[in-house]
Design goal:
Layout: E1 33-37, H1 53-61, E2 73-74, E3 77-80, H2 88-93, E4 97-105, E5 111-120, H3 124-133, E6 137-139, E7 141-143, E8 146-148, E9 150-159, H4 169-183, H5 187-198, H6 205-222, H7 225-238, H8 251-268, H9 271-282, H10 288-306, E10 311-316, E11 322-326, E12 331-338, E13 341-347, E14 352-356, E15 363-364, E16 373-378, E17 383-388
Antiparallel strand pairs: 1-9, 2-7, 3-6, 4-5, 4-9, 7-8, 10-17, 11-16, 12-15, 12-17, 13-14, 13-16
C-alpha cells in the first residue's frame, strides 16, 4: 500500500498558548446523566458480527456505483434508565468523578457490549457505571418498519455528591504549591507535586477539574500533544454544564479549550474530533472571534479529507487496551504495528462488524452507511498507524 500521507504540519501553523486562570470556588449539584447518539458505517469480513443481515445482503447484491441509503432508520428511544450505585467508600470520602461509555442497543431494546471510553476519579466508578447501563431498557431502533440494533451510542455518567462546594483549604494550598513550581519553571517538581495530588482519595469534581487544568499546562510545556488533548477533553467532561449552572470554568475558558483541542486534534490527524469541537464552538454565544481564528484550520482539514492523499494517525494503545477513532473516510488500514493488536470493531448506525487485524489490509466501507467509529483492542503501549485511505 502506498504510504503517501497529508502533512499535518500544513494543517496547523498557529498554536494558541494556555490561558492562566485564578483559583476560585463554585458550587456543586447532584449527579447528572448525559446521553448522546453517534452514528456511522461498517463492512463485513472475518469474525463478522452483523447488526442487520438484510441490509448487508442488499448492499452486496447492488452494483457498486448504484449503492445508496436504502433504509429508513428511527433511533432507539429510552424507556428505563437505572442510576448507577455510588460506591460507598468513594461517597464516604467525598470522591467524585465520571465515566464515559459506548454501547449497543439490540433488537429487543437491551444494552449490549458496553465499553469504557474514558473515566476520571475512583476506578470503582467504572464497575458501577457498567452495571447500571446494562440494566437500561430502550424502545428498539426501527429500520424499514422492523426492530434492528443501534450499533453506537454513548453516555457519560457523573458521580457527584451534594452538599460540598468548591475546594478544601488543604487542596488549595497543595495546588498553589504545585502551580508555583510550574510558574518557576521547575517542571519535574511540578509534575511530582501534581502526581501526589492525583493520588488523593478525597478529590471532588471541582478539584479534579483544576488538576486536569494544571496537567494540560504541564503537558503543553513538555510538548506532549497526546497528553494535552486527553487532559483538555477531561476538563470539558469534568467542568459541568451551562444548563445546570455548575461550571467550574467560565464560558470563555470552555471556548478556549475547544479551540485548543481543535488545533491539537488537527496536528494528530483526528479530523472528526476537530470538526466535532468546532461544531460545539459555533453553538456558543459571543465566540465569533475564536470561530474566525479557527476557521482557516477547519478549511484546511476539509481540504485534506477531500484530497487524494492518505491520512495517517499515529496511535499508542492506553492502559485500558481500547482506542476509539471516528473515521472521515470510507477506507482504512493499519501499518507499522509495534506490539499486539487483537481486534478492530466497526460500530455504526445500524450495523457493526468485528475483525482480526491484518497489517496492510484495506477495509472498504460503503459510503451509504455514513460516518463510522472504529474500536481497536490490543496490548497496553502497542503502537501503530491507522491510515485513512484515499479513494484513488
Amino acid at each position: 500500500m502506498k504510504r503517501t500521507q497529508w502533512n499535518k504540519a500544513d494543517i496547523v501553523s498557529n498554536v494558541f498558548q494556555p490561558t492562566r486562570l485564578p483559583l476560585s470556588k463554585l458550587a456543586f449539584v447532584f449527579a447528572t446523566l448525559f446521553t448522546s447518539v453517534i452514528s456511522g458505517n461498517a463492512l463485513a469480513q472475518e469474525l463478522s458480527i452483523p447488526c442487520d443481515e438484510v441490509e448487508k445482503k442488499a448492499l452486496e447484491e447492488a452494483k457498486e456505483n448504484e449503492v445508496t441509503r436504502i433504509t429508513a432508520f428511527q433511533p432507539a428511544m429510552p424507556i428505563e434508565r437505572a442510576n448507577p450505585r455510588y460506591p460507598a467508600q468513594a461517597a464516604r470520602k467525598g470522591q467524585e468523578g465520571w465515566v464515559r461509555m459506548s454501547y449497543v442497543v439490540d433488537e429487543e431494546g437491551r444494552v449490549k457490549d458496553p465499553v469504557v471510553d474514558d473515566f476520571f476519579g475512583n476506578s470503582a466508578f467504572k464497575k458501577s457505571a457498567l452495571s447500571a447501563v446494562k440494566k437500561w431498557k430502550f424502545e428498539p431502533a426501527v429500520k424499514d418498519g422492523e426492530p434492528t440494533q443501534q450499533c453506537h451510542q454513548s453516555v457519560q455518567m457523573d458521580f457527584v455528591l451534594g452538599g460540598r462546594t468548591g475546594a478544601s483549604r488543604k487542596f488549595v494550598g497543595a495546588y498553589k504549591d504545585a502551580d508555583a513550581l510550574f510558574q518557576a519553571g521547575d517542571i519535574d517538581a511540578a509534575e511530582a507535586a501534581l502526581s501526589e495530588l492525583k493520588d488523593w482519595d478525597t478529590l471532588n469534581r471541582y478539584e479534579n477539574t483544576w488538576l486536569l487544568n494544571l496537567d494540560s499546562q504541564i503537558a503543553n510545556k513538555l510538548g506532549d500533544v497526546e497528553r494535552e488533548v486527553q487532559s483538555i477533553g477531561r476538563i470539558l467532561s469534568s467542568n459541568g454544564s451551562k444548563r445546570d449552572k455548575n461550571r467550574v470554568f467560565d464560558e470563555n475558558y470552555v471556548a478556549y479549550s475547544l479551540q485548543r483541542k481543535i488545533i491539537l486534534d488537527s496536528q494528530q490527524g483526528l479530523f472528526a474530533d476537530a470538526l466535532s469541537s468546532f461544531s460545539k464552538l459555533k453553538e456558543m454565544d459571543d465566540q465569533q472571534t475564536r470561530i474566525e481564528e479557527i476557521t482557516p484550520i477547519i478549511e484546511q482539514i476539509e481540504t485534506a479529507i477531500a484530497s487524494n492523499q492518505n491520512l495517517e494517525v499515529p496511535v499508542t494503545i492506553g492502559e485500558n487496551g481500547n482506542w476509539f477513532h471516528t473515521l472521515v473516510r470510507s477506507q482504512f488500514a493499519f501499518n507499522d504495528i509495534n506490539g499486539d493488536l487483537d481486534t478492530v470493531e466497526v460500530r455504526c448506525e445500524s450495523h457493526r462488524e468485528k475483525f482480526t487485524v491484518a497489517e496492510g489490509h484495506v477495509w472498504k466501507i460503503p459510503e451509504s452507511w455514513g460516518q463510522c467509529r472504529v474500536l481497536v483492542k490490543g496490548d497496553d503501549a502497542t503502537k501503530f498507524n491507522l491510515i485513512e485511505v484515499a479513494q484513488s
